[in-house]
Amino acid sequence: MSEHQRDRSASWREAHPEAFAELKRTWGVIGHSSVLMVLSLSLIGTSLTVGYLHLSGWLEASVRLGASLAAVGYGVVGLWRLVRALFRSVRAVIRTGRRGADRETHVAAAEDNLPEATPAAGS
Known about the structure:
This protein has 123 residues and is mainly α. Helix content is 83%, strand content 0%. It starts with a helix and ends in an 11-residue tail after the last helix.
């Protein structure tokens, strides 16, 4: 990575700490949600393989129902956390972009309102 690219990315982080923190949190939530999804899939597999153990009817039904409910629960929680984190990240980036546009507008308006330089008397 060139020195210019390194300076540019560091300045964005410093200029937009809220958006950067939200994006960083999103990566953590994506990892956690992935773990929940894998756990959900393993519980689905457990539910499907219980039939091969030849347990008594009520025990097999109870284990399948419990594993299926847990799989659905973990899947829903993982998906909800993922969608919420992505929504927050997009919202933070949009908010950062709006603030940047507002700053540019204020700077341009301030430059327009600056008084013209008057020549010194006696020149």
